[in-house]
Design brief:
The chain is of the alpha+beta class. The protein has two helices and three strands; from the N terminus they run H-E-E-E-H. The protein has a three-stranded antiparallel sheet, with helices on one face. The longest helix is centred in the first third of the chain and has 13 residues. About 0% of the residues are buried. The model has no long low-confidence stretch (mean pLDDT about 80).
């Protein structure tokens, strides 16, 4: 549950004027059902996926995705 509280804090910081009626679901591996650091956030018609990134992933993502 500590992770859920941290996700709520992140959402409140990113979306301070948004309705706090978010449904937060921690996703699990399909293979064994073990939870991992990915959460689905549902808020009415909107949905987000948040993933706890490892330090090296920022560099990978910035080099992989084109800059706009």
């Amino acid at each position: 549950m500590e992770h859920i509280a941290q996700v709520r804090e992140i959402l409140a910081a990113l979306l301070p004027s948004a309705d706090a009626q978010w449904k937060i679901t921690r996703l699990c591996h399909e293979e064994d059902g073990a939870p991992y650091d990915v959460w689905r956030i549902d808020a009415g018609e909107k949905r987000w996926i948040l993933k706890k990134a490892k330090e090296y992933e920022y560099e990978v993502y910035t080099s992989f995705f084109p800059k706009s």
